[in-house]
Predict the 3D structure of the following.
Amino acid sequence: MVQIKMHLLVCGGTGCRASESAILVEQFNKHLQLNGLADEVKVVTTGCFGFCEKGPIVKVIPDNTFYTQVKPEDAEEIVKEHVLKGRKVARLLYEDPETLEHISDSKHMEFYQKQVRIALRNCGFIDPENIDEYIVRDGYAALGQVLASDPKETIELLKKSGLRGRGGAGFPTGLKWEIAAGNKADQKYVVCNADEGDPGAFMDRSILEGDPNSIIEAMAICGYCIGATKGLIYIRAEYPLAIRRLEIAIRQAREYGLLGKDILGSGFDFDIQLRLGAGAFVCGEETALISSMQGSRGEPTIKPPFPAQSGYMGKPTNVNNVETYANIPPIILKGWEWFNSIGSEKSKGTKVFALAGKINNVGLIEVPMGTTLREVIFEIGGGIKDGKRFKAVQTGGPSGGCLTEQHLDTPIDYEHLTAAGSMMGSGGMIVMDEDDCMVSVAKFYLDFTVEESCGKCAPCRIGNKRLHETLEQICHGKGTLEDLDYLENLGRVIKDTALCGLGQTSPNPVLSTMQYFKDEYRAHVVDKKCPAGQCKALKRYIIDPTKCIGCTLCARNCPTDAITGDKKVPHVIDQSKCIKCGACYEKCKFGAILIR
Amino acid sequence: MNKIKSLDDLRKMKQSLKSDISIREKSDKAEEMVRIRVAMATCGIAAGAREVMNTLLRKVEQDSLPVVVTQGGCMGYCYAEPTIEVAVPGKDPVVFSHVDSARALEIVDKYIIGGELLDGIIPVNYQSIQEKI
Amino acid sequence: MDKIKLTIDNKPVEVAKGTTILQAARQVGIKIPTLCYMNLEGMGVENRPGACRICVVEVEGRRNLAPSCATDCTEGMVVRTTTPKVLNARRTVMELILSNHPKDCLVCASNGDCELQDLAATLGIREIRMVENAAFSTYRKDYSFSLKRDMDKCIICRRCESMCNDVQTVGALGAINRGFTSVVATAFEQNLSDSPCVFCGQCVAVCPTAALTRTDDTGKVFKALADPTKTVIVQTAPAVRAALGEEFGLEPGTLVTGKMAAALRRLGFDKVFDTDFAADLTIMEEGSELLGRIGGFLNGDTSIKLPIFTSCCPAWINFFEQNYPDMLDQPSSAKSPQQMFGAIAKNYFAKKSGIKREDLVVVSVMPCIAKKYELTRNEFSSDGNRDVDISISTAELASMIKMANIDFMSLPDEDFDHPLGESTGAAVIFGTTGGVMEAAVRTAYEVFTGKTLERLEFKELRGFEGIRTASVDFNGTAINICIAHQLGNARKVMDGIRKGELSFHAVEVMACPGGCIGGAGQPYHKGNASILKARSQSLYREDAAKPLRKSHENPYILKLYEEFLGQPMSELAHHLLHTHYFDKHHKI
């Protein structure tokens, strides 16, 4: 008998699949076959490794070799060299951006060194389409343990663990369960909020794609604790892979009797259905989510009543998000003391972030609460792209705020981020560099909230539109100082009066950029200049007569004939005709075109 | 598929499935593991390294040993193939020469489990298993 | 019940658990302004989506402002309703709402009767800050016989949705689109006329602006009155006299029957008649039908289906035809009083007076806007000439009186003209919920038992409960009656009957809260249920004051049968006074 000596873990997350990782798997299998290694080497499609910047990722087990940006045609070389002869393929190894050294073992990458993976424990490690692999990783053991005990004990354990909702608001999970458990009803529901909608965020998607069983197990645990027999996962239809893996996992769990009647002989019944959402951001708000699941317009309702009192179909309903559920089985198996020892004073455990923007290591990370922004951005994230200067980081998605250099040493937890004028949110983290105009950044986020407002309450429906229009005016050089007062007042009123969390936080990008980048706003309205050079309307192209030799190249390339001048005489740009396309700037060989 | 009817069933199932994934779990905790690297270059393979590797893998699995077996390229001891390098946590790595299946098992029993030193150790003149490539 | 103590603007208040800040504040004379909030107390009609955010207040310890309409009081709560922060928020939100609302107040249908206008005045809004060329959300207009939708004026308070979906369970309206382009519309953005709308107009009745308005037919009436070749006669429904006075500053519940007749005469109507006459006629026909069916049923005729449903309310008939096409043979085949009047006017009065049918214009004044639709139904025309030509609402009549320079308050009380102006007390109470059934019972009892009623007032049929049931003893035979007002209540009753869980001999349904007195053609009660109760009481007062209180005692009715119709349910009566119903189930 030949022993399996090696596993090739190939990332099958949405990002890596987009880069042909599924074909890569086929190629691996083909070349293993050709080299007679099919019996000795197993190819496993896993969930996301998090290092999406350099996907597709292939990890070779047992030596932990971490290959990046592997193309289907690289499969042959990896098989022939590494698998067959033990020689690593150097060109596919990760290169440290500072030392330029190749790092073969992912454990030595700074990206992974600072991470603590609880929610992501199985992502990039197991085959998410095979429940057996989850079971080997202690899967469903927590459920078994809980089913043999009093639900109150589990709730108590969760309360002591300090776990707080990872969807954004940070409500203590144990307390939430306790409230739902305390409300008597003939039917209760457990809902998983998988309506991840922040731009650039994919924490929940990755968990669902990489470890769907952990959510199923946690929901069943919740069902037992609060007295619910039905679970619903509200997931957006744009997540087809996550949906497929959930469906497979649910089917396999049912086949094993881990969902359905009399789970593990306990007498407890629980089953889960999927509900596909149409991708409205506001449906991430729990009351809007419930409304949408009931077939109504996805818009929030006033609280109270809270879902724990009257939720889905008017019954007590516990809603937690994906990441929150993913934390629950390990807490039960390892104990509250273990979880409580990780993190900061009031925020326990870890948090998953989707790093994006002008950062070297775009990807998915999980760090202990209390890790500083600096560690995340400069160590795990590998710093700013192209050696540019860090300007700001936006946390909390469109509802969060922009934090600056002065906040880099802020520990990441619920309290500190809120105190700094941003928020934890669901875990989006977008990094901006010196080239980003903060007025435009605020406008970008408002673009999103204006689009995603459900339209129910007046402050959000109309107010955000007016905020957006005012920012637009400022970017077009038509802003006044009064506009800045208007923005500030309107932003505060929306925050104070909007109905739901979306509306109440939607002015945050404006208010926080106004707080920390007031000078930049003033430059736009007083000097009519965009310091970052992003606002087209505020750019002026002029020709430096001392540098222009009158070659006419710019004039010939100007699409609006805005540039005039005789040969060998310095040219001039007619500002009234210039559309700021930048063609002259690109063409000039003498650096005579200046942007002011 | 059979239904899992109790927590005990589940635990049994986990045990029976364990081997499938243990290689990953071990490499995840590689620093706590004894690491055996089998030189699997052409010279090693020609001298029977594959058989040695297979034997080691089977032994490790049967006895559930905290050992990771990896393969490496040529270490330069072509005269002494098959060679294996054994790195016990906290100790310097040791290279054994002329390893066949029987000797491999002996190394596991005596050196790794028993902690005794054996003949046939090649003096180490390279960095360690932890080199970057 | 648990009591809660709190302070509002430093005033201590004690309220029951579950009381909102808004209600508590009203207890101590603090009137927090509201816009989207609506509560028809005692009728189970509430709209509190918490959408407009005008009623926000400061609550100590809370990070944002609280919508007072939707925030329950808690023990020890400290509420402030007029801090600079609150006032600024309220005004800023109001400015936002106004920034997306047309500024054509002077020529708006709701000018002077607009909650948004009033609120802008209350809050002292003097400017609306926004950028030049700020976006304005717009939507196409939609016209129907009964009402007009101009969604540019909609402030998305959702009251119409609450009425249409929750109260009436018609489900014609709902919010569509998102964010700034959100708008209340029908499914698939159909025209209202093609939607499941039943034209009850309760959406119009609660609209705080002019987004939903009644179709204005006053111009047609003025034109007919000015045409020398036409004889123009008018009929006024019972509920009109109970509410018209409100348009002239009178207390709700003031009856203005005499002044109304005088005003109509001064407007130039050739004859001022009364729909009440037709109501008495309705009782004769419907009462006979009821007795016939009950008699047959009690004699074991299995082809007869009970209960019999009243058919006076056109919105109810629309609702019925859409939702219960399996029961088409169950409503009374008697036409509504408006249409009975039209049929008698055009076929009896015209002949009697020697006027050609096409030269006679029949105008109705109704508390209702579904009547505007009802008269257009094909079965109510003869050779393209409608039995009733124009229907105007109570409010439209008031506006005509104002436009015609008539000083309503100084008018003398005048009587209706004969022969179609005489009526009994039974007809008057048609205008309030339970009235039709009470009127029918008064006549049916005497016909069935051959005895004279000792007690005319059936208190058990009166009241404002949404669904009321009573059993009336017809000389040893118990007649089981159900009365429902508001279509949502009707649906409950109908579903119960369809499932066999409920069984009655007769069911009265009125679509609007309180019956016709709460119709969409009336001056808007703006959620004040006491106005409806006052109107209802006034009708019972008029009934009590009438010398004749049973329809079968109306001498002109008796004469009509003698001269023209023969017997109730005669062939001619069938031809002129009865109708049939259609399957209008909406298939999507």
User: Anything to note?
Assistant: The two ends of chain B are 43 Å apart (CA to CA). Helices of chain B lie at 7-28, 42-46, 49-62, 101-113.
